[in-house]
Amino acid sequence: MYRHLLVTVDGAPGGIDAIGHALELARAVGARVTFVLPGAAPDSRLSGARLPEHGAKVEAAARAQGLSHAIAGAGHPAAGGTSPGALARELGCDLIGMAALPPDADPAECRQRQQLLAMCDVPVLVCTSPRPPAAARVIARCLDAHRDVAAMLHGLIAHGGEAAEPAATPEAIDIGGTLAALAALQRTRFGTAAEAQLFAALRTRTESVAAELDELDRQQRRDAQACDALARIASDGQPSPAFDTALARYARGAFEQMGRIEGVIFPAARRYLGDADWAELDRRLAGGAAATPPGANEIDDARRASD
């Protein structure tokens, strides 16, 4: 039985699927997981906004699944310039998990993958994503919103607080305007957009992730308050150490929240939602509908009654 999984991580949709598959397998067999994050420090436990985005995500997803985990990045003695197979042997991993290559993958990348599969003495699990086109489109909408949030956060981290004087660089951004756009995007994500409707549909199909969805609701309210606090601090002027600290806290929370969604909620949705559910979600989102799926209001009423 597998005891230690090595999982390569990137920001592509296929890589996100691989994380979900690997975490579910690790939980099922009681294995621990080491994530490979290109460009991350080894065993990274950096705080705040300086924690690499993917590191914050996979750590949050692994914690939500109750898994023992570690991070090996480009700075790891065994990771620099070595193949996943060599790194797996060095770390004592007995299974490598990675995403299937997309149809338009670079030929050199395809040859490298074929060589790994042919010569690696550690078993390799290639995580494909066999899901209906409607499901792929719904999840893609969610991931588009995640990328938009990440882009705004990276811009704020690069130019806000003590990072630079806004007027000193031609790449300066409007801190206040960006924060307002970020707050609006977050409200839409959890109010009427793809994620909100996906969560509501999932609640009607299973109670197995109700606690996780409730925790995401709590985090969303916390993050909304943190974003409002950021806007108040920014209105006092830049640069500001207080803004840096508040931004680091908010960014980490936002990345962790997205990690829990990508590593826990998406796999659960693939498992519990049927083709008809995905088709209905896709239809609603394509038509710009904001209504929640049938049954969701009853569940919300029951939750409020129990609060």
UniProtKB/TrEMBL annotation:
Residues 287-307 are annotated as: Disordered. Gene3D superfamilies: nmb1532 protein domain like. Residues 287-296 have a biased composition (Low complexity). This is Universal stress protein.
